[in-house]
Design goal:
Strand content of chain B: 5-15%
Number of strands of chain A: 16
Helix content of chain A: 40-55%
Mean pLDDT of chain A: 85
Low-confidence stretches of chain A: none
Helix content of chain B: 55-70%
Structural class of chain A: alpha+beta
Oligomer: heterodimer
Number of helices of chain B: 12
Number of strands of chain B: 7
Largest sheet of chain B: 5 strands, mixed
Low-confidence stretches of chain B: 317-324
Distance between the termini of chain B: 39 Å
Distance between the termini of chain A: 94 Å
Mean pLDDT of chain B: 83
Shape of chain B: elongated
Structural class of chain B: alpha+beta
Order of helices and strands of chain B: HHHHHHHHHHEEHEEEEHE
Chain lengths: 777, 375
């Protein structure tokens, strides 16, 4: 009986059904009652599932689900409202009451002061109701709209609604946007911004930090709603959502404080909100003038929010421009909206706001915005502000995804991150690039980069900017029609060819300046001793850890220390090593295998010495009249091998004999040959598995670069021991130094003292019959 | 990292989840606000989840216990039975009294059943107009409607059957028992108590029914049901699956710099088993019911330490000379998904094998049970 009981999703679905029924009946009072019941139960479920971890972080059991394609309960609950949106949107022409009531859903679902705190995932799902509603409205608009020409005789066309529909829609949209903006007003009370005067900076900062994800989702969803309207060619929607996005900071009423003007806002990122106050201040220190002890949390928070808003508007504009460039939207609405966003134009006739907030759309400002976006964080990083910006780009562009068949594999057709907006960034620059000079950009960039400690990732940030400028140069080299379309979309009067030339020159100058500045810094920077010691220590370990890349030999002793022997000091150079990888912090992107590659080279050099010494030992000659493909040869080898000692090894020419052996004995599945053949596992063969052919009659056969007709037979135990004497202190068997301190690239010098001891077992050099000999025979 | 101590000395998954949910319910304000009152909890303890058959079975147990006492006590300890329980002059005629009482009780029970029928009819009427099937299910559950009806019918059946006290009659016919009415009195007291419980249940049922027609109370009913019944059960189910699926990472603490990443998965199959560790014939079909993670952790840590030792000694297998194959320990069964026929349910890949002791411990850490409703 217990199993038949209804689950929460069934209950909530039935409650949603009741509300939907009232929309169909156009019964506002009954609808209100049904909606209240639905919201009350939904809120109750959210509270029921709320919990906190031991460190006070809010979690929700409604976010717990597992299995293949897990369905998170809270998403199932929120999903019920989509049906209501659809029904209410369909009734928009009859009665706007329902859609207006539904627009207030997020504010009614969000936790109130005193309620259990909800984790970001739950808040995001509730705030996503806004875009959900916008989608349904756009669906209604596109169903009702007709194509109309902009002006008589014009070829440009736009979607427009009939008179009464247009009026109803415009009216309802204002109220919906109003409700959406009202959401921002609850942040201070829910997240406790209004702390008492005596509250510490730490507490205030913590309260601001907790509200960040709410503000961030709200901001990004506002941009998303605008993108939805642009995608659907909805002029009324674009005007309202564009105003909402541009006026977002004013609605949230953050106030600047005077000392914060001293901070360089382009280097402030909301990642600071994830830190506690002392940590945030220490991160800010390089960005503050010496005479400012610390900024106030409120002022700093205000700057961070404004910066985040600026980035969001900029990326939204770039995304819309990229749609225009790729002709994803039929009319010029995307380019017009992008321009309005960049200029902070608002349709609302509030001249005060226009006057206060109108941004100057000029070259230096746009370029510095691009630089800021690139400085925000690495691509592919999990978490952090950079990944939030990538998520914004990805979500804005997601609506331009083509329809796909589930299960098939497709090439991605939408943008995943900021990097894919570089074309749009270039189009913006081309639209405003001065044909003479650089609008003071180089000077500002230089000032921004000269205080490296203030950059989020120091030299890595500079490298990222270099990469971006390089990428811009490459795109400009192949400047296609899209770029022209983008630039003209923003500025109809732009002289495109001249602009490209001017921008190329600016990029070249900027790149040269930054590179020269970095080179100068690199030259001054000493090689980091700790880093060199780490490399040395890894090399030391590798040389003394069997098999140490020593080929063919097994069972030898490998030891180090003062009594290891008195061999000669060996020195060899690893050339063309970037100094940037040896300084601290690194000034070159270190390949994952940099140290491993160096170590491998050292081991290879050490083992080459062993092999050369082995090759110089006396060998006995042996002439065999039959070839390796002949079974008789192996009978001879079997009878001869005991002479050389245990674990016999035969080296043959890779070009000739190895092929013959493989063809005759190894490849055939069922060889009729009367010889014993086996393949030893990799672990037994050791460091040179690649050249191992097979073990025939108990002899390990390897293919090497010998001349044709030559083979060596010896014992794998011929090598008695290899020692490395201490050359720089008791436990140090390798010395590592970098030569070329004042250049970008140099030489890593490695020194060690190697001592090799051999057994007295014979080595047989076998002469095999050549092809001519065989032909004669 | 999951603290398996919460699952007791075995680290039982079910126990861990039970404690986790209990803790959450204790701390959660919404649960606390909607918790059943103590009187309702007592009533639910007496009635909830009991069927007609169960009520009769409980009563039959009591009757047989009384019968046994009536057989044994007069024979071995006749002095413990008080003389006043003898029926007839000079004392009260207890036999007649018991018969009269049975008549009253039967009348009361029939009346109660009538009230229930009216109430259910009323609710059905409301449901038809409001299209609220889940609400009705909640109502039936919260009003204890099914249990109250079952209990009343069971008592009515018992009262009718006990009019002639058939078992006592049989005992007397066999020449056993006693004329003293003590045991019948005990049973009659049980009947009266049961009737009182039924009346309390009826009162709860009637109150719930009349409140059900009011929207506010219906919401309250729904929330109470969700907080007390649905939430603990649903959350436990989801958390159990989640913890089971993600338990692998909490079992080992590898040195990430030195050791290869060890992967331990539960409820996920990587395809063809490489080295079969545990295999079993699941006939009849079975499901994983519980897992003792502290035992598994002990075995897994031993195995993982051996894997790391081997990797450090340079004996670990490499793939095409590039990197060590990461050791994997795979437990394929999913929770509550039936396993049928011969199943390889634990295997390793790119690692040393489990020892027989580790296999033994792991085998006993997984608790299988037969699939309900399946032969």
């Amino acid at each position: 009986m217990k199993r038949d009981l209804p689950a929460p999703e069934q209950i909530i679905e039935e409650l949603a059904n009741k509300a939907a029924l009232q929309i169909d009946r156009l019964a506002p009072v009954a609808f209100d009652s049904a909606l209240d019941e639905l919201i009350r139960y939904h809120r109750f479920l959210l509270e029921l599932n709320a919990a906190v971890t031991t460190d006070g972080t809010p979690i929700s059991y409604a976010e717990v689900a597992s299995g293949f394609l897990p369905r998170l309960p809270h998403l199932v609950w929120v999903g019920q409202y989509r049906r209501l949106f659809e029904r209410a949107a369909n009734r928009l022409g009859d009665d706007t009451y329902f859609i207006e009531r539904l627009a207030g859903l997020p504010i009614r679902l969000l936790p109130k002061p005193g309620d259990a705190r909800q984790p970001p995932g739950i808040i995001a799902a509730i705030l996503n109701l806004g875009p959900g509603l916008a989608h349904r409205l756009e669906a209604w608009v596109t169903k009702r709209a007709v194509i109309a020409t902009v002006a008589e005789g014009s070829s440009q066309s736009r979607l427009s609604l009939a008179g009464s529909d247009s009026k109803a829609y415009a009216g309802v949209l204002k109220r919906i946007v109003g409700q959406w903006e009202t959401l921002l007003q609850i942040a201070p009370s829910v997240y406790g911004w209004k702390l008492e005067q005596q509250a510490s900076h730490r507490d205030r900062w913590s309260a601001y930090g907790k509200s960040w994800y709410f503000l961030s989702y709200h901001l990004q969803n506002t941009a998303y709603m605008l993108a939805t309207a642009v995608w659907n060619g909805d002029e009324i929607g674009v005007a309202e959502y564009c105003d909402a996005l541009v006026r977002w900071p004013e609605v949230s009423s953050y106030q600047r404080e005077s000392s914060e003007e001293l901070l360089n806002r382009r280097l402030l990122f909301p990642d600071l909100l994830g830190m506690d106050w002392p940590n945030a201040v220490s991160h800010l220190r390089p960005n503050l003038p010496a005479y400012v002890e610390e900024p106030s949390p409120k002022g700093l928070f205000s700057l961070l929010i404004q910066g985040a808003h600026h980035d969001c508007v900029f990326l939204a504009a770039a995304t819309l421009l990229s749609w225009h460039m790729e002709s994803k939207v039929a009319s010029d609405i995307a380019a017009r909206t992008a321009l309005a966003l960049l200029r902070r134009d608002v349709a609302d006739a509030d001249s005060g706001f226009r006057h206060r907030n109108r941004a100057s759309f000029h070259f230096r400002s746009v370029f510095l915005d691009i630089v800021r976006v690139e400085l925000a964080g690495e691509r592919y990083h999990q978490g952090g502000y950079g990944s939030e910006l990538d998520r914004l780009v990805s979500s804005l562009d997601s609506m331009s995804e083509r329809s796909v068949v589930p299960g098939r594999i497709y090439t991605p057709s939408t943008m995943d991150d900021r990097e894919e907006l570089r074309g749009a960034f270039l189009a913006m620059l081309l639209a405003v690039v001065p044909l003479e000079g650089d609008d003071g950009f180089s000077q500002r960039l230089g000032r921004l980069l000269e205080n490296e400690a203030a950059l989020p990732e120091e030299d890595r940030s500079v490298r990222n900017i270099l990469q971006t400028l390089d990428a811009f140069q490459r795109i400009l080299e192949s400047s296609g029609p899209n770029l022209r379309r983008g630039a003209i979309g923003l500025s109809a009067n732009v002289e495109f060819e001249a602009a490209v030339v001017a921008l190329k020159a600016i990029l070249e100058t900027s790149l040269a300046t930054i590179r020269a500045h970095r080179r100068e810094r690199l030259e001054k920077q000493p090689v980091d001793p700790a880093r060199m010691e780490r490399i040395r220590s890894i090399m030391d370990d590798a040389l003394l850890t069997p098999p140490a890349d020593i080929p063919f030999f097994r069972g030898f002793a490998l030891h180090g220390g003062a009594d290891a022997g008195d061999g000669d000091i060996v020195q060899f150079d690893l050339a063309w090593i970037g100094k940037g990888q040896l300084v601290e912090p690194p000034m070159e992107t270190e390949p994952g295998s940099f140290v491993e590659a160096l170590t491998h080279e050292v081991c290879r050099h050490a083992s080459n010495r062993i092999w050369h010494q082995f090759a110089s030992l006396a060998r006995e000659k042996l002439e065999v009249s039959v070839g390796v493909e002949d079974e008789a040869f192996w009978r001879v080898m079997k009878s001869t091998s005991p002479r050389v000692g245990a674990e016999p090894v035969l080296l043959v020419s890779r070009q000739a004999e190895e092929r013959l052996i493989r063809r005759r004995f190894v490849y055939p599945r069922q060889s009729e040959a009367q010889v014993r053949i086996e393949r030893k596992p990799r672990d037994e063969v050791g460091g040179n598995y690649g050249s191992y052919v097979a073990t025939i009659e108990g002899i390990d056969v390897y293919g090497v670069d010998f001349s044709v007709g030559t083979a060596w037979l010896f014992s794998a135990q011929s090598l008695r021991s290899v020692g490395y004497a201490a050359i720089d202190g008791m436990d140090r068997h390798v010395q590592v130094a970098f030569a070329g301190d004042d250049e970008e690239r140099g030489v890593v010098q490695v020194r060690f003292r190697q001592f090799i001891q051999w057994m007295n077992s014979p080595i047989l050099e076998i002469s095999l019959p050549t092809a001519e000999d065989k032909a004669e025979a | 990292m999951i603290d398996w101590h919460q699952g007791g000395w075995t680290g039982s998954l079910k126990k861990w989840v039970r404690n986790e949910i209990r803790q959450q319910c204790r701390d959660n304000l919404a649960v606390r606000r909607r918790r059943y009152s103590w009187s309702l909890r007592v009533l639910r303890c007496a009635l909830a989840q009991r069927s007609f058959g169960r009520f009769l079975a409980i009563y039959a147990t009591l009757t047989f216990a009384m019968l046994l006492l009536e057989l044994v006590v007069p024979r071995y300890w006749p002095e413990v039975i008080p003389a006043w329980t003898r029926s007839g002059p000079p004392g009260t005629d207890i036999k007649a009294l018991l018969n009269t009482l049975a008549g009253y009780l039967i009348t009361a029970q029939v009346g109660v059943l009538g009230v229930i029928a009216i109430a259910i009819g009323l609710v059905t009427l409301i449901v038809q107009t409001e299209d609220s099937s889940t609400d009705v299910q909640v109502y039936y559950h919260e009003s204890l409607a099914v249990e109250v009806v079952a209990s009343n019918l069971a008592l009515l059946t018992v009262l009718v059957a006990q009019i002639v006290w058939p078992l006592q009659f049989l005992l007397h016919r066999l020449g056993e028992g006693t004329d003293l009415q003590l045991f019948k009195l005990v049973l009659a007291t049980a009947h009266v108590t049961w009737l009182l419980v039924n009346l309390t249940g009826l009162a709860h049922f009637v109150v719930t029914t009349f409140r059900f027609v009011q929207k506010g109370h219906r919401e309250l009913l729904r929330e109470r049901y969700t907080a007390n019944i649905l939430h603990p059960e649903e959350t436990a189910r989801r958390v159990t699956s989640w913890v089971y699926a993600n338990a692998g990472a909490s079992l080992i603490e590898a040195n990430r710099l030195l050791d290869p990443d060890t992967t331990i998965t539960f409820g996920f199959d990587w395809g063809q088993p490489e080295r079969v560790e545990l295999e079993r014939d699941f006939d009849p079909p079975m499901v994983v019911h519980d897992v003792r993670f502290r035992w598994i952790r002990w075995a897994v840590r031993r195995w993982s330490a051996r894997c790391h030792r081997e990797a450090r000694n340079g004996q670990a297998r490499r793939i095409a000379g590039l990197a060590h194959a990461e050791p994997k320990l795979v437990f394929t069964p999913q929770l509550d998904v039936p396993l049928r026929g011969r199943v390889v349910w634990c295997w390793t890949m790119g690692a040393v094998p489990l020892t027989s002791l580790e296999r033994f411990v792991i085998e006993r850490s997984f608790r299988f049970r037969r699939v309900p409703h399946e032969a």
